[in-house]
Amino acid sequence: MIDDSHSRRRSGPLRAFGGAALFAVVFLIVGWSGYWYVAQHMALQEFHVQLEKEARLGRVWSCDSLTSGGYPLAVVLDCAAPKLRIDEGLASQTWSARRAVILAQLYAPKLVEIDLSGPGNLRTDTAQASLNWTTLQISARGLPQRLERLSVEGRGMTADADGISANADSLHFQLKRTASAPMAPYTLTAGLAGISSPVLARTVGPGSSALFTLLGAVTQLDAAGSGHWTERMEAWRAAGGRISIAAMSLTRDDFAVQGEGTVGLDTFHRPEGKLAVRLRNAGPLLLALAEGSGKLQRNTIAGELTAGILGRPGELKFDAAADNGALSVGPLRRIVTLPPLY
């Protein structure tokens, strides 16, 4: 009897503790489920608000079907056959993909990750381009208030536009704010590895795949916060926005082109700026550029001398300048006319 009463006295607190623990677990599960449901509802509501805002600006987003999930740690929106139609006056263009999965973790709601499935297409009133990829992931932090970081990572990239094709093994792009202050510049990094294209082969000759890299910064990007893309570009230009290129290069085997400088837009929305360029074994490229612009004819004495100089291996240094709607390359003045971008 003494032992039984002692056991009952010991088991009483244990049962109470177990009951309290079970109640706490059930309370947490129910509370978290309610929190997730509210977060999912708010995410869907914000998603539709943003779609309506975009539509008023001429950018109409749509899905063949839209489902949500992600319980318990995230909110996931699954958009089948996403499409974006952009109407600009009498012209329009449509971007499409096979599927878009949009994910926001509950512990980091301002970080949105998008997984796009190919193939994709771009259609305009006069042209069409097809795009495909093995993987393509986009992440953005800080929106809709203010962009803090934008990243794009892709693999197995292919593109075809008007019979011109190109491939790349991998793609990397990132914009990242350097400080929390308004109008703080963004660092810019971009890269394409394993580039192959018939156009590249015709321009610089046959060879292995190429590598493109870019390091720089973008200023005044906060000025382009709303409106049509043309309105954003104009606001960025008017605020003095510039792209500062610290290092840009395209390399393939013994061929290399490298540049650094600053570019922007003039009052007529044409590119302007200057790049200091270094070329290694780029004679075929320069000859094609000069002949295509009509500045060089090989059947002349000057043409033969120029072709002989450019055909030699070695390195060349010159400035490439965009000014008053034309591109000048070294001593070749105004060889390409630059149209307005918008």
Write structural notes for this entry.
With 342 residues, the protein is an alpha+beta fold. The protein has two domains: 2-255, no CATH class; 256-342, no CATH class. Helix content is 27%, strand content 46%. The protein is built from five helices and 20 strands. The protein has a 20-stranded antiparallel beta sheet that branches. Helix 4 (283-292) runs antiparallel to helix 5 (301-310). The longest helix is centred in the first third of the chain and has 55 residues, at 2-56. The termini are far apart.
Summarize the helices and strands and which ones pair or pack.
Elements: H1 2-56, E1 59-62, E2 65-69, E3 74-80, E4 83-88, E5 91-96, E6 99-105, E7 108-117, E8 120-124, E9 128-132, E10 135-141, E11 149-161, E12 164-177, E13 186-195, H2 198-204, E14 210-218, H3 229-238, E15 243-252, E16 255-265, E17 271-280, H4 283-292, H5 301-310, E18 315-323, E19 326-329, E20 332-337
Antiparallel strand pairs: 1-4, 2-3, 3-6, 4-5, 5-8, 6-7, 7-10, 8-9, 9-11, 10-11, 11-12, 12-13, 13-14, 14-15, 15-16, 16-17, 17-18, 18-19, 19-20
